[in-house]
């Protein structure tokens, strides 16, 4: 099987196993809510974030409210997501910059988004892909690790991995790739104990024999 055929097989297997839904699992109603939820999701599960955001958005429903939030109160509301001191501070500063520099609207370009406090390229690409329908590849730890195991990149820097994947994956799968590989990484291709025998990609994964100890 040549490389292009192998990539097509990988994508077909992922679609068959997980479906082609591209909506993120973070609950949100608009760009601002998704931005907040994505910032909170760093080093935290989406399920936990979804437990926190209803009360958070009830208390601070928009950019203006968050910009004027009380830091200690905000920390209490997001305490369970971890790293709450930094995240609370970042949310307030992020909201103030959106209010002051972008007229209260979450910006759409990678440059504008990454100028916001607490927003890196990964978070920016989540917004671009899920809110503004600008296809992008979000490179988190699961995407980086599994893409490398599949032989689709040899890089470790997220931005270089992103470029490698953009060169081998069709554009209509860019957003989907992140969602599917995060699920695969959490449930099957677990870093310390991969369940290769259960993996829908085992027949096209060059790392399978290494995990099996063969």
Radius of gyration: 18 Å
CATH superfamily of the largest domain: Hypothetical protein, domain 2
CATH architecture designation of the largest domain: Orthogonal Bundle
Number of strands: 0
Main beta sheet: strand number and arrangement? none
Count of individual domains = 2
Shape: elongated
At CATH level 3, the topology of the largest domain is Endonuclease III, domain 1
CATH class placement of the largest domain: Mainly Alpha
- Strand percentage, roughly? under 5%
| Distance between the amino and carboxyl termini | 21 Å
Rounded average pLDDT = 93
Order of helices and strands: HHHHHHHHHHHH
Low-confidence stretches: none
Features:
elongated, 2 domains, Endonuclease Iii, domain 2, 12 helices, Endonuclease III, domain 1, 214 residues, mainly alpha, 0% strand
